[in-house]
Design a protein that fits this description.
Helices cover 84% and strands 0% of the residues. By secondary structure, it is an all-alpha fold. The protein has one domain (3-218). The longest helix is centred in the last third of the chain and has 32 residues, at 187-218.
């Protein structure tokens, strides 16, 4: 399948999902529409990504994200289970990024720590976390680690920059989700959350595809 066709189908599914959310479409249809953009990104990675450990870990992260998507889309509240699936997805991304660079990247460690700590402070003081406080703090630490390791790839090559773009969008998506759930619920934020999420996943997948192009240029 042509990459442009995949992107077009993902965009079409995104538009249909947003329309379905606005019109209260059946949850089964919404589940399919929600999964389709990430499934297409995973297929793109499978076909065009450079084989190796990096592709394995990023593909694992996308697969775990699909599980998290499915759990969060169920009529029953499966937020904790979905949170665990996405936490494992972020750890898979961290493992993938570590296959490309183990540089400490102090500046990005500081950026990630400040971003996560600052958001957690606001969330803790303005939100209503209750029994979710510990799980949310643990999850936030993991997404901060993921952003830090993606930042360490920024100067490596174009693939690394795509990894950082994807990671930053994913973190922004999670922050919007947390704000919407624990601080100030607003249906509009759900559109922002899901669009940032899909864009982030495609950015991370693009890093694997771009790596193949980078390796080909070096030969």
């Amino acid at each position: 399948m042509n990459p442009k066709l995949r992107f077009f189908l993902a965009g079409l599914a995104a538009v249909a999902f947003c329309f379905g959310f606005a019109t209260s479409l059946d949850w089964r249809v919404m589940l399919l529409l929600k999964l389709l953009p990430v499934l297409l990104a995973l297929d793109w990675l499978r076909v065009a990504g450079l084989p190796g450990r990096y592709r394995f870990w990023i593909a694992s992260g996308l697969g775990l994200s699909l599980l998290g998507d499915a759990l969060l889309a169920l009529p029953s509240d499966q937020f904790i289970a979905g949170l665990v699936a996405f936490l494992l997805a972020h750890l898979a991304y961290v493992a993938g990024y570590l296959t490309r660079s183990r540089v400490v990247a102090n500046a990005w460690l500081l950026v990630a720590a400040c971003a996560v700590a600052g958001f957690l402070y606001v969330l803790d003081h303005r939100g209503h976390l209750g029994p979710m406080r510990v799980p949310v703090f643990v999850y936030a630490a993991v997404i901060g680690m993921m952003l830090w390791r993606a930042g360490s790839l920024m100067r490596v090559d174009a693939a690394g920059r795509w990894a950082l773009i994807g990671a930053a969008l994913f973190v922004a998506s999670d922050m919007v989700l947390a704000w919407n759930r624990f601080v100030a619920p607003d249906p509009t934020l759900r559109y922002i959350n899901i669009l940032l999420y899909w864009a982030g996943q495609w950015g991370i997948a693009a890093s694997v595809v771009r790596l193949r192009a980078s390796e080909a240029t070096r030969l």
